[in-house]
Amino acid sequence: MNSSVLTALERAVGHQRRFDVSFEKYFAELAGDVGGSRLGHFTPRCLQLLAELSLRGGKRIRIALLYEAARLVTEEEVPGLLEAALSLELLHSHALVLDDIIDDSPLRRGGLSTYYACREDLPENPQAALGLAMMIGDLAGFLALRVLVQADLPADRKQAMLDVQLGVTTDTVIGQILDLERDVTSSADEGLLETVCEYKTARYSILAPLRLGLLAAGEDLAEHEESLRRYAALAGISGQMRDDYLDLFGDPDVTGKPIGADLRAGRRTYLVRDLLAATDADEHDTVKAALGSPDCTPQTIDRIRDIAYRRGVHHHLQSAIDRHAEAASAEAASWRRHWHEEAVAVFEQLPSWNTRRTR
């Protein structure tokens, strides 16, 4: 690994560590900020569960992208980045809570999902547990906007950043709707897969941090919007494919999720598409029977993984991951004529790193 890659990774780790300290501080102050002792018993518990989910790991890729996007323009300290970072991660928590409710997923980031924690708290009242989990997801989404509204920034810059985050909040919910359509549509095509990826991954995980960081640094986005969107789409597809790959071929001790969670949830991912296309009739029936079956046994998942290896699905999907990552890196390389070299290098290297990540 060359020195420029190491420097970029070290900077990314630094961004993440500093943010984690600020995120802990945010949650430590939040209960008092929204009402303190007048909040009864459920609200403090909801805040606690939101904090536990938000602080319990995560790659913090959005944070690195946000800060490095500002560094494309300037190496000076940029006001508003912390509030933008908090907003991005709170919106991510919102999406995770919704995902786990929709998928009926017991685990997230190596611990109980928020939904299952609510079910443990209220074992005799599953409807209230579901409602409470939904409220935690809603709370995270509203807090994501609130923290930006309260940022001490010039009015025009704050409005531009709010417009981005309002748009991506809407996109995230639309992405959830599209995700449901994909998973109940047996003939979901490539176009629907890519649209889901655009709304659930590219727009809020890549494009939003890029746009927020550049806006906070005072950049006019008009000239760069098409290139930013191309980069986000390519890197987003590559990253989503890697997530899909890890669902079957990853290490659950590293990913924090059981092997085959997407299969059991009936998610028609890139991996499932490739798996169904590569199998013979008997193997195809095995995969279809497991798809959407929460009672699917670990032995069946092991059998499906063996089928996938034998049919070369892992190689086919990894090749697609690499192709999209290389195209994203090439798009980022075109930014050298506009922006600072060191920050551009991060965006060039990120897709390649993403192709081999283990969680």
UniProtKB/TrEMBL annotation:
GO cellular component, one term: cytoplasm
A Pfam entry, by short name: polyprenyl_synt
Top-level taxonomic group: Bacteria
Cofactor field: Mg(2+)
Protein's UniProt keywords contain Magnesium: yes
GO molecular function, one term: dimethylallyltranstransferase activity
Family annotation (SUPFAM superfamilies): Terpenoid synthases
Keyword hit for Metal-binding: yes
Entries under InterPro entries matching the protein: FPS1-like, Isoprenoid_synthase_dom_sf, Polyprenyl_synt, Polyprenyl_synt_CS
GO BP field: farnesyl diphosphate biosynthetic process
Xref: PANTHER family: FARNESYL PYROPHOSPHATE SYNTHASE, FARNESYL-PYROPHOSPHATE SYNTHETASE
Family statement: Belongs to the FPP/GGPP synthase family.
Name by which UniProt lists this protein: Polyprenyl synthetase family protein
Organism name: Streptomyces guryensis
